[in-house]
Amino acid sequence: MAEQLLNGLTLGGIYALIALGYTMVYGVLLMINFAHSELFMWGGVAGALFLGILPANAGAGALAAAFVLAMGASGVLAVFLDRVAYAPVRRSPRLTPLISAIGASLFLQNLVFLWRDSQMAFPQPLAVRSFHCGPLAVNGLQLFIIGGSVALMGALTFFVRRTKMGKAMRAVAQDADTAELMGIPVNRVIALTFFIGGALGGAAGVMNGLYYGSVKYNMGFLPGVKAFTAAVLGGIGNLPGAMLGGFLLGVLEALGAGFLPEPEWKDVFAFAVLILVLLLRPSGLLGENTSEKV
Amino acid sequence: MGVAAAAFLAAPLVLQGTSWAFVVRILALMGLYGLLALGVNLVLGYVGLLDLGFMAFYAIGAYTTALLSLRGVSFWLCLPASVLAAVAVRTLLGWPVLRLRGDYLSIVTLGFGEITRIALNNWDSLTNGPKGLSLLSSAAVPPLRLFGFGIRTNTHFFYLIYALLALGILVSARLNRSRIGRAWMALRDDELAARAMGINAPRLKNLAFGLSAGFAGVAGAIFARWENFVTPESFTFWESALLVAMVVLGGMGSLPGVLLGVALILGLPEVLRSDVFRWIGGAQAVNARYLVFGAILVAMAIFRPQGLWPRNVDRLSSGDE
């Protein structure tokens, strides 16, 4: 039971990091970045490639560098995605950006597929230790993932609440037109939003790679949908909601897996949660943090 | 126009038995996807609701026919049963989700599509899991006959599929011009105004959902008997996304556009696959088709959001209605 909880928190941390990307973009643009799951995949692949050229067990420095690199790669890709696929259709009907995002998602996945269609191993730069804490077997990697995701979330919260750019971001989320009039560089804020969201997705990609030991071109889809579920669960557009939703979904899923006949059914769980939340509480547990735009 | 249609319908008779016989299969497949795309178009093109899990109803149709056929039921009973199953599931599911706003509805339909696929993959006692159901080796499956004439080859299925496609086009076109069709389009263009005019939005939306599932049920039933094999593999999210791509690429709400979209998206990889084009794209050209589609989708959304063959939208302003 306690081990399931730990598994759940680990997965939850990864979901929460991806969910933050959905929520930030939704908060600012009222748009679901459907290709966000590909940013997660991209980060995982970038991390695997970088660690792949280093010798095995390259150490903590290599791991830190892999995180920085993967976050940068996913962040830049997110900004690029916005420029190419979303910015031109910003004033179009609601369906258009979604179609564009499906196209971008197909493109990015198959770019990686054409180049590497099979699974790539994700090197472990550090020897993973397990230890016993009473009757509970604790995996060092799990603690690292939970701790790392909480640290990143803390950094994001500080950035949004305390810095000038964070304030600008909140202003744009509330009313982009008025923010523009107040002299806030709206386009730069949007680019920054995509960059940070993408970078958090990229960090989640590296954590996921470390945890499962491999990356693949189509690995983004399921975590992507689950993270979206987490964002909706907490109230899309709401940063604390996305974090809470991510951890909650991870834990629910891990505990639920204990009752289900086969492990793959646990993926049904996320979708069932999504549908239930949307039906019973369409604005999520903590409420939707966006103003209705008409 | 008539000559072209006659030539198209005669094509299988000319091509069968030659080295171009594979074209018959591709043309029949286009017809089958045409049926599916007409279904997507009812919901997306007419009512403006994006369904990302449409393949679930195709799957329900296909599995219904496969399971019943293995129990000795004739295709002509399986076909309505498949339609009924798809429509029933879709309608039951429709009511609760219709309150959801745009993007949320899309994601929930995506979720339902995935739930269906995972269920087919794991409900081993009924669906035989990932291995799927084969109708080929089973003696219980009754032969498919129409007016005493056996339907077995690609050419036979070509005619069966295009007969049903013609029916589907007729139904779609009639709906387009009916009271219901006009109410749908009013909902699509301005839901608030349409509701204010007394249009029962949830009922009409669910009607569109149900009818579209009917198209998927027909296509699924044919697919099961044509392939003689169904697995969950055939009904993934990306298949649903490709159908949406076909409808959007052609022109949402425009019947010739939708069929053009199907022909292009199914035809392009075949052209890329043929020897003539191999020297342009190399052996990788076939694998690159989704990459190409992805890029085309983005480009279309940006440069031609109304599609290649858009529906005629300006009838009111040009004053001929």
What can you see in these coordinates?
The complex is a heterodimer of chains A (294) and B (321). Chain A is mainly alpha-helical. Helix content of chain A is 71%, strand content 4%. Chain A has eleven helices and four strands; from the N terminus they run H-H-H-H-E-E-E-H-H-H-H-E-H-H-H. Chain A has helices spanning 2-29, 36-53, 60-86, 95-115, 140-162, 164-174, 176-181, 186-212, 221-234, 239-257, 266-280; strands at 120-121, 130-133, 136-139, 214-215. Chain A has a two-stranded antiparallel ribbon with strand order 1-4. A two-stranded antiparallel ribbon of chain A has the order 2-3. In chain A, helix 1 packs antiparallel against helix 8. The longest helix of chain A has 28 residues, at 2-29. Chain A is globular. The N and C termini of chain A lie far apart (47 Å). With 321 residues, chain B is mostly helical. Chain B contains 15 helices and four strands. Chain B has helices at residues 2-15, 22-46, 55-70, 75-97, 102-122, 124-127, 154-177, 179-189, 191-196, 201-227, 237-250, 255-273, 275-281, 289-303, 315-318, and strands spanning 133-134, 145-146, 149-150, 229-230. In chain B, a hairpin with a 2-residue loop joins strand 2 and strand 3. In chain B, helix 2 (22-46) packs antiparallel against helix 12. The longest helix of chain B has 27 residues, at 201-227. In chain B, 46% of the residues are buried. The model of chain B is unreliable at 316-321 (pLDDT under 50).
Summarize the structure.
Chain A is mainly α and about 290 residues long. Chain A has helices spanning about 1-30, 35-55, 60-85, 95-115, 140-160, 165-175, 175-180, 185-210, 220-235, 240-255, 265-280; strands spanning about 120, 130-135, 135-140, 215.
Main beta-sheet strand count, sense and barrel state of chain A: 2 strands, antiparallel
Count of helical stretches of chain B:
15
Mean pLDDT of chain A comes to 88
Count of strand segments of chain A: 4
End-to-end Cα distance of chain B: 26 Å
Helical percent range of chain B? over 70%
